[in-house]
C-alpha cells in the first residue's frame, strides 16, 4: 500500500507538473500572439501616419500649384492685352512679348503636368488607405473561429 500510495502520488505529481506546463505554454503562446497583434497595430498606425503626412504634403503642393497657375493666368491676360495693342505699354517690342508669352505657356503646361502627377499620388494614397482598412477588416474576420461564423460572415470574408 505504501508503495502504491507513493506511486500514485508520484504519478499525480507528474500529471500536476504537466498541466501547469501546458497552461504555461498556452499563456506564452497567447502572450506572443498579443505581442504580435500589438506590433502589427503599431505598424499599421505608423503606415497610416506616413500616408497622412504624405497626403498633407501633396495637398500643400496642389495649393501652391493652383496659386502659381492663378498668377500665371493673370500675367498671361496682361501679356495678351499688350500683344493685341489693347494696353498702353509700348516699351516692349512684339518679339520679346511673344517670347514671354511662349515661356508662360510652357510654364503653365509644366504646372498642369505636375498637378496631374500630384493628383495621381493622392489617388494612390487613397487606394493604399482603402487597402489597409480592408486588410485590417479581413484580419479581424479571420481572427474569429470559423465555427462561430454564419454564411453572411463567410461571404463577407470572401468578398474582402
UniProtKB/TrEMBL annotation:
Which superkingdom? Eukaryota
Q: Where is the composition biased (Polar residues)?
A: 1-11
Which portions of the sequence form the region Disordered? 1-38
User: Can you give the residue ranges of the BMERB domain?
Assistant: 45-160
Q: Which Pfam families match?
A: bMERB_dom
* Annotated Basic residues bias: 22-35
What this protein is called in its record is MICLK protein
**Which organism is this entry from?**
Oceanodroma tethys
User: Quick one: which gene encodes this?
Assistant: Micalcl
Amino acid at each position: 500500500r505504501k508503495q502504491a500510495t507513493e506511486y500514485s502520488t508520484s504519478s499525480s505529481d507528474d500529471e500536476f507538473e504537466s498541466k501547469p506546463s501546458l497552461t504555461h505554454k498556452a499563456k506564452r503562446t497567447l502572450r506572443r500572439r498579443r505581442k504580435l497583434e500589438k506590433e502589427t497595430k503599431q505598424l499599421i498606425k505608423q503606415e497610416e501616419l506616413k500616408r497622412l503626412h504624405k497626403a498633407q504634403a501633396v495637398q500643400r503642393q496642389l495649393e501652391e500649384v493652383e496659386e502659381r497657375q492663378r498668377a500665371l493666368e493673370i500675367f498671361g491676360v496682361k501679356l495678351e492685352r499688350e500683344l493685341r495693342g489693347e494696353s498702353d505699354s509700348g516699351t516692349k517690342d512684339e518679339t520679346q512679348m511673344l517670347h514671354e508669352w511662349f515661356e508662360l505657356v510652357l510654364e503653365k503646361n509644366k504646372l498642369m503636368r505636375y498637378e496631374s502627377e500630384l493628383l495621381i499620388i493622392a489617388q494612390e494614397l487613397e487606394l493604399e488607405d482603402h487597402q489597409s482598412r480592408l486588410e485590417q477588416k479581413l484580419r479581424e474576420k479571420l481572427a474569429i473561429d470559423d465555427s462561430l461564423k454564419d454564411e453572411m460572415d463567410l461571404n463577407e470574408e470572401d468578398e474582402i
